[in-house]
Amino acid sequence: MDTILNYIGGRHVPAASGNHLDNVSPLTGEIYALIPDSGQSDVDAAVRAAQDAFPVWSQMPPEDRSAIMLRLADLIAIHAEQLAQAETRDSGKPIHHSRNVDIPRAEANIRFFATAILHTHAEAFHTRAGVLNYTNRKPLGVVACISPWNLPLYLFTWKIAPALAAGNCVVAKPSEITPMTAYLLSELCREAGIPAGVINVVHGLGPRAGQAMVEHPLVKAISFTGGTATGAAIASAAAPRFKKLSLELGGKNPNIIFADCDYDKMLRTTLRSSFSNQGQICLCGSRILVERGLFDRFMQDFTALARELVPADPREESSRMGALVSESHMNKVLSYVQLARNEGGTVHCGGERVLLSGELSGGFYMSPAVISGLGPECRTNQEEIFGPVVTVTPFDREEEAITMANGTAYGLSATVWTRDLDRAHRVASRLDSGIAWINTWLLRDLRTPFGGVKNSGIGREGGEEALRFFSEIQNVCVDFGSAPTL
Ligand code: NAD
């Protein structure tokens, strides 16, 4: 049995209470590690360690901060295989995904922000002759980073990297469902020479450890990625305390397919955008809207491809469909397939629990489901399912597709498939989403703004937006125009 520890003030320590939580591997359904069940006193110790470290870290020249962070990126690269295996065991995702997406992206996140701070600049405003305004960018102090289970190290580093690069000290909490790679990263942080207290990792439950971080009076900002209901709870705790808040929340993303698209590219990409990471990516396109003329062909080809996505041992390089993250999540996703049936939908394939053999027989596997015959207002088409379940709905006119695409409470991302240049830009500009892809999906440039509208969140991550979030901008106004008079 592995034991995960908190990382506070440069030391690995258990929860002050001595209590722990079970960590289950979705591959087998078995408990394989213990996690500290941290509470207020652990969070308080972490925040105080961060506060103590802040003067040295915030005043360190950016070149030196950058060099330390680059050492961390190098260490992630050196330990990539160990981290990938840990991610797969902890989250159930195929090792192919961990090796090619999660861990390389975690390294890239650190590298990106470590180098970004070498290229930032202040703004200056020449107000009139003799009057100049300029901006000072200051780190906030202690900030909290709270991340979810679907892309554990990827999203954990996506938050801590800009926070640290901007000169803040961090108290971070990974999801209690997938804590392992954040724990391994905390060891690498020490090896990289990040001074004690600059980054602290507190493990535990959201309503205990997470809530204590949000409510702590010394925490100046909260960067949160997770579910919309949790985001609402965090916002209501943070607002009266006047904390900066970045919320990256759920999605119900539309994938609009016009009949004139590049069919083969669309089909391959749509399979990926539907079922990558077992559909547990906030950007997955779960509502596929297809122009009527293409509908029958699409349904036939897409269902055939979905049937080929058979869950298999996630530790095998060839596996493309792993386990869902937990038993309760799998049951929630399966219940939505039943809901779709109750709402009158037709399940063309999948949507069943799959039992693998041997030591994997207790794992949380299900076959990907393709559903049609549902109206846009039904719950299956309105609520985030966050699993390998998509609905396919025909449309006749562009306007109808836009109305359906925008017709949920969410607005994270959207995809448009067409070869008509005018239509592509016209439709993208009318979508209520923070991100729109045209003829592609999940093609990321870390400099671009990332985030959602409506119930999908507040604020933007990525590039300059993230560095701004983790900074306080002070304006300095200088009047040097008039000579002193006696
Ligand atoms: P979750 O909201 O249950 O948990 C996310 C994190 O918040 C965990 O670390 C959890 O412990 C913590 N938490 C829970 N309650 C808390 C509280 N009261 N105070 C402070 N922290 C608390 O989400 P999840 O189930 O881990 O993740 C899945 C959700 O995340 C999905 O809705 C998905 O769409 C969303 N997500 C969004 C993005 C994005 O960029 N918009 C990216 C990935 C995942």
Order of neighbouring strands in the sheet with most strands: 15-18-19-14-13-20-21
Evaluate the radius of gyration: 24 Å
What name does CATH use for the topology of the largest domain? Aldehyde Dehydrogenase, Chain A, domain 1
The best one-word shape is: globular
C-alpha end-to-end distance = 80 Å
Model description:
By secondary structure, the protein is α/β, with parallel strands linked by helices. It has two domains: 2-249 and 456-475, Aldehyde Dehydrogenase, Chain A, domain 1 (3-Layer(aba) Sandwich), CATH 3.40.605.10; 254-438, Aldehyde Dehydrogenase, Chain A, domain 2. Helix content is 40%, strand content 23%. The protein contains 15 helices and 23 strands. The protein has helices spanning 40-59, 62-78, 80-91, 95-116, 152-165, 180-192, 206-215, 228-238, 263-275, 292-308, 327-342, 379-382, 398-405, 421-430, 463-469, and strands spanning 2-3, 6-8, 11-13, 20-25, 30-36, 124-128, 131-139, 142-146, 169-173, 199-201, 219-225, 244-248, 253-257, 285-291, 346-349, 353-354, 365-366, 369-372, 389-395, 413-417, 435-438, 457-458, 471-479. The strands form six sheets. A seven-stranded mixed β-sheet has the order 15-18-19-14-13-20-21, with helices on both faces. Strand 2 (6-8) and strand 3 (11-13) form a beta hairpin. The radius of gyration is 24 Å and the shape is globular. The mean pLDDT is 97. The protein binds nicotinamide-adenine-dinucleotide.
Summarize the structure.
By secondary structure, the protein is an alpha/beta fold. The protein has helices at residues 40-59, 62-78, 80-91, 95-116, 152-165, 180-192, 206-215, 228-238, 263-275, 292-308, 327-342, 379-382, 398-405, 421-430, 463-469; strands at residues 2-3, 6-8, 11-13, 20-25, 30-36, 124-128, 131-139, 142-146, 169-173, 199-201, 219-225, 244-248, 253-257, 285-291, 346-349, 353-354, 365-366, 369-372, 389-395, 413-417, 435-438, 457-458, 471-479. It contains 15 helices and 23 strands.
